[in-house]
């Protein structure tokens, strides 16, 4: 008993001592002077007031909060205000602007402004100096964030996963706000463009992007192109999710492309069940109830293998924010080199920091962020979107148009391509010659920034939530009979035949 008490006291003492040491380290770090470059701040501010074009070199690099001294922040804010108004920037105009802001005496008066200009020898290296100031600011931000993470980590009430999420968000925010991409020069861009053209010439495939798996659609789009934002929109029950799943399946299974699928509406298991139904041609009702005959179990086990090996990464986080989406996609790109991102659907996402704005402003922020994500990761992003009820109330043709996009015109503006799904059968419409429209589905390309517009006819098999090329024959499950030999030659999906068309 005494030994147990002794061991407990030793363990308690060790934990207390380690905690005290860690807290001492934190306090010691907090007592140190933060990273700074005050002398360079003075030189940069002085150069901005002496050299006419110096501000053009640093205006995209520096913001007022980057400066360590508060007085320097005020002076740079005055310079930015003058620049925004296209007014001259010199000692007198900056002094007058500070006086108008009520900050002239706070910064040290005209005397301090003149001292700043006396520090300048040349503005030749002003951009280099500005980047050093920015680096010091980033270091200070990292110290603050790290201190907050350490403080929160000591709190037992803090959820560890919330802590991880917040830490990641703050780090990414520093990168997003401060590490801006610089411009590219024409020789480099021409070299990259020629390299892409040579790659296309040497490729055995005529597609330059991620294939959709549908012949006519691939013919028009050349596959989903890198950095493109694609909007797939339709009214409810048209098959948006089904078509998106078909596209993801075709890219992952038929063309071995790693795909990320973010579902804000359906659970990941529900999505996979749909994929299984599409792949095995067993109805969703049978899969939900498990009421399968013996031969259907064989059918399931035999045909599900391609899905098991598919590189499809499904995330069903509800109310996903655009910021969390960006963080998740970055990790997936780094770990699995994803080649395309699907989002089901756009209106269910949230935009942090837009709580005071209207819903239209929030949707605009989300669509702009999705386009930014596509450019940053250099992959196509396909987002599903709802259409307004005006489609239903419109007389005549129910075919969607761009103005039907719901809640924001920014979706149309930001998108590189807008696709609509239209099934006349749903509205009980027939062809002009009276022919039935059963199973007919039209994929309408209403906007295509880098290509032509057009309609693509597909066949929709509702019981399997499956879209196929019109000429492709699908063997119904009723053609199977209970037997031990399952493999049927007609059951395999035929990939897009665009590469076999000599006329393309």
Pick out the low-confidence regions: 8-22, 474-504
* Gap between N and C termini: 86 Å
Radius of gyration: 30 Å
Helix content: 40-55%
In round numbers, the mean pLDDT is 78
Strand content: 5-15%
Q: Structural class of the helices, strands and pairings?
A: alpha/beta
Strand order of the largest sheet: 3-2-4-5-1-6-7-8-9
**SSE succession:** HHHHHHHHHHHEHEHHHHEHEHEHHEEEE
Short description:
With 504 residues, the chain is an alpha/beta fold. Helix content is 50%, strand content 10%. The protein has a 9-stranded mixed sheet, with helices on both faces.
Features:
9-stranded mixed β-sheet; disordered C terminus; 504 residues; alpha/beta
Describe this structure in words.
The protein is α/β, with parallel strands linked by helices and 504 residues long. Helices cover 50% and strands 10% of the residues. It is built from 20 helices and nine strands. A nine-stranded mixed beta sheet has the order 3-2-4-5-1-6-7-8-9, with helices on both faces. Helix 18 (359-377) links the parallel strand 4 and strand 5. Helix 4 (70-84) packs across helix 5 (91-101). It is elongated, with a radius of gyration of 30 Å. The model is unreliable at 8-22 and 474-504 (pLDDT under 50).
């Amino acid at each position: 008993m005494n030994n147990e008490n002794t061991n407990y006291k030793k363990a308690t003492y060790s934990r207390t001592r380690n905690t005290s040491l860690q807290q001492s380290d934190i306090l010691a770090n907090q007592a140190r002077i933060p990273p700074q470059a005050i002398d360079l701040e003075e030189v940069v501010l002085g150069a901005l007031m002496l050299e006419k074009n110096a501000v053009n070199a640093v205006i995209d690099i520096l913001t007022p909060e980057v400066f360590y001294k508060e007085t320097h922040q005020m002076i740079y804010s005055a310079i930015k205000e003058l620049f925004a108004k296209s007014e001259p920037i010199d000692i007198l105009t900056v002094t007058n602007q500070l006086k108008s802001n009520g900050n002239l005496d706070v910064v040290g008066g005209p005397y301090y402004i003149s001292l700043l200009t006396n520090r300048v020898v040349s503005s030749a290296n002003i951009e280099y100096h500005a980047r050093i100031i920015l680096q010091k600011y980033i270091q200070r931000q990292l110290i603050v964030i790290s201190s907050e993470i350490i403080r929160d980590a000591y709190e037992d009430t803090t959820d560890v996963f919330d802590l991880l999420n917040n830490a990641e968000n703050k780090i990414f925010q520093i990168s997003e706000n401060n590490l801006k991409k610089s411009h590219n020069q024409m020789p480099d861009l021409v070299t990259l463009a020629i390299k892409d053209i040579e790659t296309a010439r040497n490729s055995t495939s005529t597609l330059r992007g991620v294939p959709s798996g549908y012949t006519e659609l691939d013919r028009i789009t050349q596959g989903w192109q890198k950095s493109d934002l694609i909007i797939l929109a339709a009214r409810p029950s048209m098959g948006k999710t089904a078509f998106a799943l078909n596209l993801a399946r075709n890219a992952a299974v038929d063309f071995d492309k790693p795909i990320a699928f973010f579902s804000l509406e359906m659970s990941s298991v529900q999505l996979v069940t749909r994929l299984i139904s599409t792949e095995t041609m067993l109805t969703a009702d049978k899969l939900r109830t498990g009421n399968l005959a013996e031969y259907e179990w064989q059918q399931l086990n035999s045909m599900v293998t391609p899905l098991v090996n598919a590189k499809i990464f499904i995330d069903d986080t509800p109310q996903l924010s655009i910021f969390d989406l960006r963080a998740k996609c970055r990790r997936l790109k780094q770990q699995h080199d994803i080649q395309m991102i699907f989002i089901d659907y756009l209106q269910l996402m949230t935009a942090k920091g837009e709580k005071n704005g209207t819903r239209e402003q929030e949707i605009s922020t989300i669509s702009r962020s999705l386009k930014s994500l596509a450019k940053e990761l250099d992959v196509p992003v396909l987002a599903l979107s709802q259409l307004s009820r005006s489609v239903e109330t419109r007389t005549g043709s129910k075919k969607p148009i761009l103005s039907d996009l719901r809640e924001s015109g920014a979706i149309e503006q930001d998108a590189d391509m807008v696709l609509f799904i239209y099934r006349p059968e749903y509205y009980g419409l027939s062809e002009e010659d009276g022919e039935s429209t059963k199973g007919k589905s039209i994929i309408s390309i209403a906007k295509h920034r880098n290509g032509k517009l057009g309609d693509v006819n597909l066949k929709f098999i509702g019981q399997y939530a499956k879209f196929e090329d019109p000429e492709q024959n699908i063997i119904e499950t009723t053609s199977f009979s209970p037997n031990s030999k399952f493999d049927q030659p007609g059951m395999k999906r035929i990939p897009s035949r665009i590469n076999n068309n000599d006329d393309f």
